[in-house]
Amino acid sequence: MSEQATKKNSSIGETISVIVQALLLAILLRTFLFQPFSIPSGSMIPTLLVGDYLFVSKFSYGYSRYSIPFAPNVFEGRLWADEPERGDIAVFRLPSNTDIDYIKRVIGLPGDRIQMINGVLHINGDAVKRVRGDNWRGYDKNGPEIPTYVETLPNGVSYTTLDINPLGSGDNTDVFEVPPGHFFMMGDNRDNSVDSRFDVGFVPFENFVGKASVLFFSIKNESHPLAVWKWPSDLRAGRLFQGL
User: Fold this and answer.
1) Where does residue 221 rank: exposed (0-12), middle (13-18), buried (19+ CB within 10 A)?
2) How far is 140 from 161, CA to CA, in rounded Å?
3) pLDDT tens across 136-158, in order?
4) What percentage of the chain has pLDDT greater than the value 90?
5) Cβ contacts of 221-225, under 8 Å, gap ≥ 24
6) Is the pLDDT of residue 195 over 70?
7) Residue pair 187/151 in contact by the 8 Å Cβ criterion
8) pLDDT 10s digits, 94-130
9) Residues 53, 59, 63, 68, CA torsion sign
10) Residue 14 CB-density burial (10 A; 0-12 exposed, 13-18 middle, 19+ buried)
11) First to last CA, the chain
């Protein structure tokens, strides 16, 4: 074999090695540290908008099979578990179909009693503080004004919710008693969120993927984030690198 061919083979081998190392590093980062997610629906409006991109902290709650790509059934429960706190925004696998990721806010902890009465959230029989906020016009600044309310949970976490319909299907519910090892999840867009009030049900701790930590990119009009020629008109610059 000539010296030129040897150098060529060596170069190919080095390139393959670099690619393999980069892939392994990406898998390790995605599995143990941070995983990127995009927001495809409006269930968390106004906190999260369609077209937001965020990093989810994988180590915040410890690790379950759903922390690993393709969720191999290699172990049960969680390793180095640290339970979610009330008010966290969390990504979890849908209990009825664990191939699907959902993102909602943690409202009910194990043992809690959760109920909606006339649009007001009640936890363990007590009404959560709810203050009228500014109206929200959505994506269209000329669109209808939607009432907002600032809720403050018992642990002091505050956030803004939408109330599109004061008599929505989720505004009056039975009492939900959260079983051990499960959590009650709700969207901030209360009248447009499929959550624990409906088909989602209680979410097992094992199903949690991680805690939403940083909103690092946001673009409107369903534009692709790599379509840089649309950034001047569609990029939501004011939402970049926000903590959640």
Assistant:
1) exposed
2) 18
3) 987 666 778 899 999 999 999 99
4) 67
5) 221/51, 222/50, 222/51, 223/51, 225/53
6) yes
7) no
8) 999 999 999 999 999 999 999 999 999 999 999 999 9
9) positive
10) exposed
11) 59
* Residue position matching structure tokens 């009330």: 86
CA distance 222 to 238: 17
Residues listed for the chain? 244
Q: 15 burial class (0-12, 13-18, 19+ CB within 10 angstroms)?
A: exposed
Contacts 24+ apart (CB under 8 A), 229-238: 236/49, 236/51
Q: Which region holds residue 139: left if phi is over 0, alpha if psi is between -120 and 50, else beta?
A: alpha
27-49 mean pLDDT: 84
Tell which residue, 207, 215, 203, has the closest CA to residue 243. 215
Could you tell me the two tokens for 204?
């097992």
CA pseudo-torsion sign 26, 32, 36, 41: positive
* Between 150 and 72, residue with greater pLDDT: 150
Distance CA 223, CA 180 (A): 42
Residue 204 has pLDDT above 80, yes or no: yes
Per DSSP, helices labelled H in the chain are 3-32, 231-234
* Beta bridge partners of residue 35, listed in sequence order: 56
Sheet holding 126-127, edge to edge: 126-127, 120-123, 113-117, 176-177
Domains along the sequence of the chain with CATH: 33-243 (2.10.109.10)
Task: Write out the catalytic residue numbers.
Answer: 43, 104
Euclidean distance between CA atoms 22 and 13, whole angstroms: 14
